[in-house]
Amino acid sequence: MPGLCDRFTVPRGGSGYVSRRMTDSIVIAPTGELDVAAARDLRPELNEAAGQVDAPVVVDLTGVTFIDSTALGAIVQADGRLRRNGRRLCVVAPPGSAAAVVIELTNLDRHLEIHRSRDAALSAATA
Q1: Is the pLDDT of residue 14 over 80?
Q2: Which of 8, 55, 69, 83 is found 20 to 30 A from 26 (Cα to Cα)?
Q3: CA–CA gap between residue 15 and residue 74 (Å, rounded)
Q4: pLDDT of residue 95
């Protein structure tokens, strides 16, 4: 699977993300600030993952220190695309993390499949 295996990119602002295929799932793990600039780099990763056949996608936000509406919009858009194709997007947002707080404030926890850890998300994604 070209493109998504073991790639690390550092966009402007020092944030980064790792995308890798783990067993039967694709894991995208952003770090640092997910602002407008970082979302421009995240969106193609999510689109590429959503374009893969049959693999669930896990977005691990554990390492995110800030997330804005642009990045959340990219995740919601990818979730919708995956759902339309009968696939899953699992989001990791540990309780109390920056991502979890914003997801709860925006009520996206009612729309996205949120997990406390990557292990829990991977287990759910492949169940």
Answers
A1: no
A2: 69
A3: 16
A4: 97
| Residue tagged 């600039």 (tokens) | 37
pLDDT of residue 126: 84
Longest dimension (CA), the chain: 37
Structure-token match 């829990």, residue found: 120
Strand partners, 108: none
Check residue 23 and give its pLDDT: 55
Structure tokens that stand for 96 in this block: 């109390």
**Distance (Å, rounded) from C-alpha 24 to C-alpha 43?**
21
Beta bridge partners of 90: 58, 113
d(CA 63, CA 125): 20
What lies within 8 Å, CB to CB, of 67 at 6+ separation is 33, 34, 61, 98, 99, 102
58: left (phi over 0), alpha (psi -120 to 50) or beta: beta
If you count them, how many residues does the chain have? 127
User: Model confidence over 37-88: pLDDT tens digits?
Assistant: 898 889 999 999 888 878 889 999 999 999 999 999 999 999 999 999 899 9
